[in-house]
Amino acid sequence: xxxxxxxxALMAMPFAMQAQTKFHDVEANEAQGAVKKITQANMGxxxxxxxxxxxxxxxxxxxxxxxxxxxxxxxxxxxxQGNETTITFKWQNGKVxxxxxxxxxxxxxxxxxxxxxxxxxxxxxNFGGQQMEMKYTDYKYDAKGNxxxxxxxxxxxxxxxTRTIEYFE
Length: 169
Hints:
Radius of gyration: 19 Å
Order of helices and strands: HHEEEEEEEEEEEEE
Oligomer: single chain
C-alpha cells in the first residue's frame, strides 16, 4: 500500500509543479523574498501593494495585468487621476529596466539602473521630450535585504522615501 501511495504522489508532483506559477511582481517593486505587503508613501499619498504567496500583486487602480510565460509582468492598466493608461514593462536579467505609458497626452518612459545590491541607483524619466533624472542614495535595508529608506533629489528638493515591508512567515 505504501508503494502505491508513493507512486501516486510521484505522479502527482509534476502536475502540482506545473500548477504553481511564480510571478515576479515582487521584483518589479524593487524587493525580493516572501513579501506579503509593501506600504510606501508616494508624493504624500500612501500606496499599498499586496502580494500572494505566489508573488502576484494586487494594487488599487491596477487592472488587466498581462504576464509572459515566465511570470514577468508585461503590461497593466492603471487609473491615474481619473484617467486610465496602459503601462508596459521591459525586463533584463530579472529587473525592470524601463516602463512606458501615455500620461495626459505625453509619452512617458522611465529607465532604471541598479546598484550592486539590486536597488535602483538612477531613475531617468523622459516626459514628452523633457528629461529628468533622480539618483538614489543613503539606502537603509531591513533584515531581509530590501530597502526601507532612501534619499533622492527632485527639482532641487531633497526627499526621503520610506516603506514598510511585511513578509510571509
